[in-house]
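Q: What structure does this chain adopt?
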Amino acid sequence: MPSTTTPDTLPTRTGAAILNLLLPHHRTTDHSHARTYAEAFPQQLGQIAEFVRADAPIAFTLPGFPCKSPNPAKVLGHLPDMGERLSLTFLNTLCTEIERVHPPGACMVICSDGHVFGDLIGVPDAHIDAYADELRTLIGESGLERLSVFDLRDVLGDLPHDTKRVHVHERYAPTLDALRAEIRTDDEALALYRGITRFLVEDTADHRGTRSALQRACRQRAYGVIQRSRAWGDLVADHHPHAVRLSIHPQPVGAPKFGIRLLDAPDAWTTPWHSAALRRKDGTWTLMPRDRAARCGRVIERDGRPSHFEQV
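A:
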């Protein structure tokens, strides 16, 4: 019997099969337990179908992996460790799994955005450079051939970091008034603002004033972090205009960005750069603040520095 699949429907079907590989890892703001189908993501389906028609690798961009939290109670140091290693390996594996339904597979650009808001989160630029450099080394040494790293050095070269931040902010960031109006009226924007504020409070390890003063300061800085995060997203879109955009933040079903979970964690906002990795007794991994992981297990070193914890 002749096939009923037309040349036009085949890319869409293949796109749906590719999205179905991503859906088990979807990080979403929708807390219902209803099953989500690929057809609920029309923008991503359309983008993926274009790559399928061209018989090209699916291109993904993932803004994230900026730098380690400056709070030593949350992380093991300022360089990538087992949390990043496991997450990058997972992302590379996801790209190679796509080859089962689309032989060219997929590639992913890790858009390391630490310099964009490093001054707002209290992380030295030298630490951010070292973190991104180590990501590249880790990817190369681990043979994660489907991954690459993109940061502000790829856009603005060796300009001073403050100059780069001003350039990106002035060209791409939404105005403060527009952002405040959005947060007042949009539940998703409000949730992001509250999440960023919470992280800023938690990441401040050396505040000597009152808790209320710290919270006020972090609420103000949160606006700046979101402005520059939006700016970075638009810059990435300019440089990778056809790529499917992933996000480490929870996203609504059908949103322009597809939220993706990197590792198991009790909180949907937890990332490898805000935590330490703990290997449980059964061999599975989870993320948690360093001080809590230290109460659960012993620290394991790799290449002469702390890497993760093992449950005891």
